[in-house]
């Protein structure tokens, strides 16, 4: 506990390029960039595969492979291959790790939509794309958001680990603290990262409440 | 290191094999102990949450929170209690991650038992304990094992993060390779971790086939 007081009570930790606000911003910026890139790739792909049902094997394989890949090894290898000292290659493993959960959940969400519902939409005269965007996506939204949440949490955690290869962000306190045996900094960094992860989790619960239609989440009472 | 450095230097692997084997053993222990512990703890907790539904929401909510905590952060917070570079520091958080996957799996598995089957068992004179062991749990096996596969594979890959606090099994190879700007250990580490995960996953699938002979009988019938 004294370590936490040491870390958070230290004025120097709150200002400058190594200060908590800047580090937090770096962490959030980087995670957000990785998540957005992963979304741009994985959501359309998941929608396409879920809607056309072609290439489902691809989804299952990437999902399993991604879980087995050690994040630290991937980060270290990619950065070493791309050249040490540059920051943007670190985005690559982060994006790669964020894609599978988004892809799988988008696909599963679309695929899992009730057949009757799909038929009814076609029966009402909607075309393929309209069925996808007006019926399938809203119904699948809880699962798509779940995939995004898992990916976001994964990215925040991996961005922490990536401090080891020189990425800024909150992981710096942990890695630098370990290297210099500065335990207040290490523990403080760990607490900040954990707090950020919890905030992400909370943000997605709120997002789910706002975005998912009451009819889908069964919050609306059917009379 | 020039541009000609190959991804894998096979002679390095040969020379360092005993050390790699040691890391592999350490890795297996740190990855599997949490999963076994997790299963042993998740069964009673899952049974309790399946029986008393009020417990379910809080348990799952808590597990969701636990699961979202980055592993490195949890390792660090445990260091003052369990020590730097100790197996326990890695095993304890991984046990909680396993629990976070396995408790919902047990609850969902038990929830998958059809009411008609449960009632038939009661009608045939099964007591609560015998019904649980001979009817409910066997039917829950596929869902529980699906959870076990996820828990095992994630546990195997997560152990390597422990290398940052000095105890990560094969993860040490990543640190070693990074510090010497040398690809081979990193590639060897990644390949071995993935191979281990695939092997463990295959073994669980095999166990599922042995534990649910009726699934195969139904497919051939």
TrEMBL record, chain A:
Pfam family, one: BPD_transp_1
UniProt entry tagged with the keyword Transmembrane helix: yes
Membrane-topology annotation of the record: Multi-pass membrane protein
Places the protein is found: Cell membrane; Membrane
Record keyword Ribosomal protein present: no
Signal sequence, renumbered to the chain: none
Keyword annotations from UniProtKB, A to Z: Membrane, Transmembrane, Transmembrane helix, Transport
UniProt GO cellular component terms: plasma membrane
Primary residence: membrane
GO biological process, one term: glycine betaine transport
Domain ABC transmembrane type-1: from-to ranges: 24-208
TM segment ranges: 30-49, 56-84, 131-150, 156-175, 187-207
Family statement drawn from the similarity comment of this UniProt entry: Belongs to the binding-protein-dependent transport system permease family.
Name this protein carries in UniProt: ABC transporter permease
Organism: Sphaerisporangium album
Automatic annotation (TrEMBL), chain B:
Ranges for domain ABC transmembrane type-1: 24-205
CC per GO annotation: plasma membrane
Any GO BP annotation: glycine betaine transport
UniProt KW keywords: Membrane, Transmembrane, Transmembrane helix, Transport
Protein name: ABC transporter permease
Keyword Acetylation: no
Similarity comment text for this entry: Belongs to the binding-protein-dependent transport system permease family.
Organism whose genome encodes this protein: Sphaerisporangium album
Membrane topology: Multi-pass membrane protein
């Amino acid at each position: 506990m004294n370590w936490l007081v040491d870390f958070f009570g230290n004025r120097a930790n709150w200002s400058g390029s190594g200060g908590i606000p800047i580090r937090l911003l770096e962490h959030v910026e980087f995670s957000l960039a990785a998540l957005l890139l992963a979304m741009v790739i994985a959501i359309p792909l998941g929608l396409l595969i879920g809607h056309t049902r072609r290439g489902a094997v691809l989804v299952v394989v990437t999902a399993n492979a991604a879980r087995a890949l050690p994040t630290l090894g991937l980060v270290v290898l990619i950065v070493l291959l791309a050249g040490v000292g540059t920051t943007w290659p670190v985005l690559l493993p982060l994006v790669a790790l964020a894609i599978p959960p988004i892809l799988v959940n988008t696909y599963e969400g679309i695929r899992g939509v009730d057949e009757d519902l799909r038929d009814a939409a076609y029966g009402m005269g909607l075309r393929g794309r309209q069925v996808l965007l007006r019926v399938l996506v809203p119904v699948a939204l809880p699962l798509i958001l779940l995939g995004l949440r898992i990916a976001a949490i994964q990215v925040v955690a991996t961005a922490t680990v990536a401090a080891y290869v020189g990425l800024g962000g909150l992981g710096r306190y942990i890695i630098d603290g370990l290297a210099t045996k500065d335990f207040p900094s290490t523990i403080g960094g760990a607490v900040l990262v954990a707090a950020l992860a919890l905030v992400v989790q909370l943000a997605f619960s709120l997002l789910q409440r706002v975005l998912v239609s009451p009819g889908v989440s069964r919050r609306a009472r059917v009379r | 290191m020039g541009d000609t450095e190959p991804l894998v230097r096979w002679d390095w692997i040969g020379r360092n094999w005993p050390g790699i084997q040691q890391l592999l053993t350490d890795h297996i222990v740190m990855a599997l102990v949490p999963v076994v512990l997790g299963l042993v703890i998740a069964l009673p907790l899952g049974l309790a949450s399946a029986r008393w539904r009020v417990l379910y929401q809080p348990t799952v909510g808590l597990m969701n929170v636990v699961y979202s905590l980055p592993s490195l952060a949890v390792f660090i917070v445990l260091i003052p209690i369990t020590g730097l570079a100790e197996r326990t520091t890695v095993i304890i958080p991984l046990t909680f991650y396993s629990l976070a996957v396995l408790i919902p799996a047990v609850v969902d598995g038990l929830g998958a038992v059809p009411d008609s089957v449960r009632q038939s068992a009661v009608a045939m004179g099964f007591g609560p304990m015998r019904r649980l062991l001979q009817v409910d749990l066997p039917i829950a096996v596929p869902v529980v094992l699906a959870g076990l596969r996820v828990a095992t594979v994630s546990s195997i890959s997560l152990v390597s993060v422990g290398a940052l606090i000095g105890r990560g099994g094969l993860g040490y190879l990543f640190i070693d390779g990074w510090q010497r700007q040398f690809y081979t250990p990193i590639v060897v580490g990644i390949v071995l971790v993935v191979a281990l995960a695939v092997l463990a996953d295959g073994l669980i699938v095999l166990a599922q086939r042995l534990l649910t002979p009726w699934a195969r009988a139904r497919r051939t019938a």
